[in-house]
Specification:
- The chain is mostly helical.
- It has one domain: GROEL, domain 1 (Orthogonal Bundle), CATH 1.10.560.10.
- It has five helices and four strands, in the order αβαααβββα.
- The chain has a two-stranded antiparallel sheet with strand order 1-4. A two-stranded antiparallel ribbon has the order 2-3.
- The C terminus is likely disordered.
- Belongs to the chaperonin (HSP60) family.
- Keywords: Chaperone.
- One of its GO terms (molecular function) is ATP-dependent protein folding chaperone.
Length: 158
């Protein structure tokens, strides 16, 4: 019953976020398109270049994880999606490529934008902090979200 309530809450919050700022193609496609915009970006030094590569890899991670969870080869599908334009992406349920908006695979723009903003903010804090204390991740014996690729832990994105 708690899981059902949580799913309804998630759907309600996603709907509110979509009403506020609209939607983008889901399945990690919006992040792939964002990564494509910075792929040729060059930093002022090697450290910045490494940071750019890390950011690009992090933006590819949601799509890769969805594909892995579907039992497919992540590199092949990620490369096919990268060369696509606009809303073109991979539907893991039907195992087909196409316009994800037309297929009904959407993410609220606010959620995608916020994830990028918060991740970059945390990365900036980590760079400027001399010492950081974190908790070790807890071992999850049963991860109810493992089949969907949806995990609320942002550390899995990096």
């Amino acid at each position: 019953m708690k899981e059902k309530k949580a799913r309804v809450e998630d759907a309600l919050n996603a709907t509110r976020a979509a009403v506020e700022e609209g939607v983008v193609a889901g399945g990690g496609v919006a992040l792939i398109r964002a990564a494509n915009k910075i792929i040729n970006l060059k930093g002022d030094n090697e450290d910045q270049n490494v940071g750019i590569k890390v950011a690009i890899r992090a933006m590819e991670s949601p799509l890769r994880q969805i594909v892995i969870n579907a039992g497919e080869e992540a590199s092949v599908i990620a490369n096919n999606v990268k060369i696509g334009k606009g809303n073109y992406g991979y539907n893991a349920s039907s195992e087909k490529y196409g316009d994800l908006i037309n297929m009904g695979i959407l993410d609220p723009t606010k959620v995608t934008r916020s994830a990028l903003q918060y991740a970059s903010s945390i990365a900036g804090l980590m760079i400027t902090t001399e010492c950081m204390i974190t908790e070790l991740p807890k071992e999850d014996k049963l991860n109810l979200n493992s089949h969907t690729g949806m995990n609320n832990n942002l550390s899995n994105m990096m």
